[in-house]
Design brief:
The complex is a heterodimer. Chain A is α/β, with parallel strands linked by helices. Helix content of chain A is 43%, strand content 18%. Chain A is built from 15 helices and 14 strands. In chain A, the strands form four sheets. In chain A, strands 3-4-14-9-10-13 form a six-stranded mixed beta sheet, with helices on both faces. A four-stranded parallel beta sheet of chain A has the order 7-6-5-8, sandwiched between helices. In chain A, α3 packs across α13, α4 packs across α5 and α5 runs parallel beside α7. The longest helix of chain A has 23 residues. Chain A is globular, with a radius of gyration of 19 Å. The termini of chain A are far apart. In chain B, α4 packs parallel to α6, α6 runs parallel beside α7 and α8 packs across α9. Chain B is globular. Chain B contains twelve helices and nine strands. In chain B, α7 links the parallel β4 and β5. Chain B is an alpha/beta fold. Classes of the chains: A alpha/beta, B alpha/beta. Chains A and B meet through α8 and β11 of A and α3, α5 and β6 of B. Bound molecules: pyridoxal-5'-phosphate. The site of pyridoxal-5'-phosphate has 22 residues of chain A, from α5, α10 and α14.
Chain lengths: 403, 277
């Protein structure tokens, strides 16, 4: 059997991935792949990136034993990988620093990126600022409304934010618009994609820059026990925090992998973002992957309480892991995520991002079914400060302001 | 390229060469602004002198398109236009015009969703002569090319101003019907001026093709002067899209006769620029 860490093979994960892009982008994609392959094992590049990850962003992040949550749930021990403590407030910073440094080595001065919740936009703006690059961020006008605070943060950090008014006016259209910008300004522009999606080599590059999460977990576990974890639980939007966490454990079959997608208002309502759970094969944003789409191949509108999970596609490597049954993909509804959001806040004094709350919620369910001598590691992909408005509004709308 | 000898597109280019004309390829968005008007639009364009018709099937995420075609695509979808309606339109057009080449321009996912085989068979049966898929790359085209060959459908690939000579040659090998030269760095939409790099690209591709593949140039073309310039530098045909949609959009008072006249006259002025003088 092929070692799962060897993927992508020829730019593909099984039959998924690949590059479906306008011809104008081919030279840019090839240049990117060549540059990345040349630099990824370069000691000087690694040292420089590490420098920023440690001294600027605050790596390593702690692996915290959530004792109160564990006691409350009863069952397996729950550990939290604290990406919420990373500079910027989410795991996105790992990828942004990595790619901005790569862009700089490639001689690119202008960075463009898409953002949904605004976290990747903020990460990009920060990394660009510290590395002396110019950043322009595309964000759907509806997302700008939902995430005003992050808009101001990006602007404070010196980035220019373009409001996207086409299509559904959310993340997928922001990606479309960023791709159009790239087609137009391909010569001097670097496209910094925010998750393990897009044409090859992006899913690989983003995964590699997020692998640090899983690598750290591995070495931190050695300090607390000799065993590998029994389960890893991560939320899945595009799938970057999950892939970064899973990757170092892919070939260790004793570790169960769980990806948690946004069940929104419930799968049956159609208002969700559960791409792996109920999607179908298709081609979007440069890759062959699973999509939420109608019978004609038009991409569906998605819904999630968390803007960061609100995406109708998913990284191609996750589709591969699902198909070979190496990872299991489950869903968590808005309400359950919100419940976990409150629980973690009160029990541990940690306000999680709504995205991460999906993972916490599923981990609580899972822990109950497991033995006390087993352990679960949840990647807490981000902190919840950005979500306070959203939570207040959601409670008013669906719960009537009680609690 | 020989497997396509019986295709209407190849025949059309032979005919144009004998008549010493350049080809005019006109794009319309299928079912836009509505299916009835769309049929009339196609008639006016053919009457005006279009040599080849390109029918767009709207897609929710048209990354290669600029604002005009994006907007048309969006509105068509909102009006319930789907690939079946577009294929019906092609069926009707084929009945009215047995000889005019018809190409479908859309994105890969529209074919993928039904399965490349099934979608292409249905399209062939409706009277389609080939496909232009701006997000299909030669690397990913195995299945697509297999059915293009089997069904004698043209598979038109695109080349850009920054495409390497090595890749241009590879593209010339697999592209049938013609090669679509993207004239600019950017998405579809009208441009006022023509860049020097565009003309150089056309000249270069023409040379690399050794006259064995037809070269059509598109993205940004809207005036007779531009048509002449592209022709002089070696284009065998030009493709006009956004400018036509723009005329359709400017027909605010829904006067269909006026729109038909406008379109016909516009297409005629472009076709006039295609004659060798
Ligand atoms: C905190 C947080 N977690 C998770 C995600 C989802 O992204 P991914 O699935 O790529 O980790 C986002 C995206 O914005 C995010 O901000």
């Amino acid at each position: 059997m092929t070692n799962l860490q060897e993927f992508p093979i020829a730019g593909k994960y099984g039959r998924y991935g690949g590059k479906y892009i306008p011809e104008t982008l081919i030279p840019a994609i090839n240049e990117l792949e060549d540059a990345y392959i040349k630099i990824r094992n370069n000691p000087k590049f690694k040292r420089e990136l590490n420098y920023y990850l440690q001294n600027y962003a605050g790596r390593p992040t702690p692996l915290y034993f959530a004792k109160n949550l564990t006691d409350y749930v009863g069952g397996a021990k729950i550990y939290l990988k604290r990406e919420d403590l990373l500079h910027g407030g989410a795991h996105k910073t790992n990828n942004c620093l990595g790619q901005c440094l790569l862009a700089k080595k490639m001689g690119k001065k202008r960075i463009i990126a898409e953002t949904g919740a605004g976290q990747h936009g903020v990460g990009t703006a920060m990394a660009a600022a510290v590395l002396g690059l110019k950043a322009e961020i595309y964000m759907g006008s509806i997302d700008i409304e939902r995430q005003k605070l992050n808009l101001f943060r990006m602007e404070l950090l010196g980035a220019k934010v373009h409001s996207v008014n086409t299509g559904t006016k959310t993340l997928k259209d922001a990606i479309n618009e960023a791709l159009r910008d790239w087609i137009t300004n391909v010569k001097d522009t670097y496209y910094l994609i925010g998750s393990v999606v897009g044409p090859h080599p992006y899913p690989m590059i983003v995964r590699d820059f997020q692998r640090v999460i899983g690598e750290e977990i591995k070495s931190q576990l050695k300090d607390i026990s000799t065993r590998s974890p029994d389960a890893l639980v991560c939320c899945v939007g595009g799938g970057s925090n999950a892939m970064g966490t899973f990757f170092p454990f892919l070939d260790d079959d004793t570790v169960s992998l769980y990806g948690v997608e946004a069940g929104g208002l419930g799968i049956r309502t159609g208002k969700h973002s559960a791409t792996l759970k109920v999607g179908s094969e298709g081609i979007l944003h440069g890759m062959r992957t699973y999509l939420l789409q109608d019978e004609y191949g038009q991409i569906n509108d998605t819904h999630s309480i968390s803007a960061g999970l609100d995406y109708p596609g998913v990284g191609p490597q996750h589709v591969h892991l699902k198909n070979i049954q190496r990872a299991e993909y489950v869903t968590c509804n808005d309400n359950a995520a919100l419940d976990a959001f409150f629980k973690l806040s009160r029990l541990e004094g940690i306000i999680p991002a709504l995205e991460s709350s999906h993972a916490v919620s599923y981990a609580m369910k899972l822990a109950k079914k497991m033995r006390a001598d087993q352990n679960i590691i949840v990647t807490l992909s981000g902190r919840g400060d950005k979500d306070i408005d959203q939570v207040i509004n959601f409670r008013k709308k669906y719960i009537g302001g009680s609690k | 390229m020989s497997h396509l000898l019986n295709n209407r597109i190849e025949k059309k280019f032979c005919e144009l060469k004998l008549k010493k004309q350049k080809g005019l390829i006109c794009y319309v968005m299928g079912g836009y602004p509505d299916p009835k008007t769309n049929e009339k639009i196609i008639s006016s364009i053919v009457d005006g002198g279009a040599d080849i018709i390109e029918i767009g099937i709207p897609f929710s995420d048209p990354i290669a398109d600029g604002p005009i075609i994006q907007e048309a695509s969006f509105r068509a979808l909102q009006n319930g236009i789907n690939p079946d309606i577009c294929l019906n339109l092609i069926r009707k057009t084929r009945k009215t015009y047995p000889d005019i080449p018809i190409l479908i321009m859309t994105y890969s996912n529209i074919l993928q969703r039904k399965g490349f085989k099934k979608f292409m068979e249905t399209a062939k049966d409706a009277g389609t002569d080939g496909f232009i898929l701006p997000d299909m790359t030669i690397e990913e085209s195995k299945e697509y090319l297999e059915y293009s060959k089997k069904l004698e459908l043209a598979s038109v690939f695109l080349v850009a101003p920054n495409t390497s000579n090595f890749r241009i040659k590879k593209t010339l090998d697999v592209s049938t019907g013609f090669v679509y030269v993207v004239s600019v760095y950017g998405t579809t939409g009208m441009r006022n001026s023509i860049n020097k790099y565009t003309l150089n690209a056309i000249k270069n591709i023409k040379k690399l093709s050794s006259n064995r593949t037809n070269i059509s140039v598109g993205f940004g073309i809207s005036t007779p002067d531009q048509v002449k310039l592209m022709s002089n530098f070696g284009a065998d045909a030009v493709i006009v899209g956004s400018a036509i949609i723009q005329i359709i959009n400017s027909n605010k008072d829904n006067n269909i006769h006026q729109l038909q006249n406008k379109l016909k006259n516009y297409v005629t002025t472009l076709k006039d620029a295609c004659y060798d003088r």
